Amino acid sequence: MVSRHFGFPPLVLPALWANEGGAPGQIVPDTNGTADYGPMQINSVWLPLLRPLGITGRLLADDGCLNVAVAGSILATERLRAGGNLWRAIGWYHSMTPSLARAYRDQLLRRLGAQWEALDGH
Q1: Are the C-beta atoms of residues 119 and 19 closer than 8 Å to each other?
Q2: What distance in Å separates the CA atoms of residue 105 and residue 75, rounded to the nearest whole number?
Q3: In a domain, 90, yes or no
Q4: Which InterPro entries does the protein's record reference (predicted)?
Q5: Does residue 21 lie in a domain region?
Q6: Residue 63 resides in a domain
Q7: Is 0.85 surpassed by the pTM of this model?
Q8: Which of 12, 25, 44, 58 is most buried as measured by Cβ atoms within 10 A of its Cβ?
């Protein structure tokens, strides 16, 4: 439903979740002083934008459906900043550092390839 709402190919958000490796209730501190929340490991840098909507870090960590919806919104925001380029947006979901964004995007593309092969039966 989130993928359809934002116009993403259906396998993108599940692959993003697999890349992130998070789970409901999970809060992971980062070495830079931020933290990642929930299944989609949404970084705390987004909390100032989410607080006016009543979304706290704890809620973001604990509510898996909300977490995926917010992740979709973040990816859609990054896609707009990337001029519509979904692959660049996927990298930016993880990091604005070009080498880290590229490595993340490449990892996700490998996951998508494996998912496609599994669906295709090969």
Answers
A1: no
A2: 13
A3: yes
A4: Lysozyme-like_dom_sf
A5: yes
A6: yes
A7: yes
A8: 12
